[in-house]
Amino acid sequence: MGEIKRLQTPLTEKVVRSLKAGDEVAISGVIYSARDMAHKRLCEAIEAGKGLDFELEGAVIYFLGPTPARPGRVIGAAGPTTSSRMDAFSPKLIAKGLKGMIGKGYRSDEVREALKKYGAIHFSAIGGAGALLSRYIVAAEVIAYEELGTEAVRKLEVVDFPAIVAYDASGNSVYDKR
Fold first, then answer.
1. Quick check: is 177 in a domain?
2. Residue 29 belongs to what domain range?
3. pLDDT in tens, 29-47
4. Under the phi-then-psi rule, with left for phi > 0, alpha for psi from -120 to 50, and beta for the rest, what region is 97?
């Protein structure tokens, strides 16, 4: 086991390109949650030449649809959703400056090519550990598409959010090492 690399958002291309598949990271700063419907709307806004409700350059999107928060908590269970569900949208967002994504599972060849071309990265978080992962989220606020409920875009503040580099900016993947 190697040393945990501490990352601060927004991510720079230099930091992203220094990470390798299999690196363990602890992410702090602002990240955004978005799932399928929010990704679709973000891409439609880009295609229409409209601005987004957050700065995409250097951003990290967590593929997340949280459960309602219990009393005294800022968010409910916050486990990752299956990453491949965002594959149709991710290359467009990466081309516009998205530097990181957090989810679980495999990514398409098109996403892998976009990661290499634009210097972005995909992290994996532990599926089934949503209650535990929510403890690393210290603030949560809906910032776009509130009508989507759990799929709304949220601005999340995280401290030492644990993840593993699943796909790096050189095209390597932990899934290739079987």
1. no
2. 5-170
3. 999 999 999 999 999 999 9
4. left
Domain contains 54: yes
Cα distance between residue 169 and residue 91, in whole Å: 13
N-term to C-term CA, the chain: 17
For 107-135, the pLDDT digits (tens) are 999 999 999 999 999 999 988 788 899 99
Task: Please state the pTM of the whole predicted model.
Answer: 0.95
Residue pair 120/139 in contact (Cβ under 8 Å)? The answer is no
Cβ proximity of 159 and 27 under 8 Å: no
Matching residue, tokens 């702090």:
28
- Output the domain CATH number for residue 53: 3.20.130.10
Structural domains of the chain, count? 1
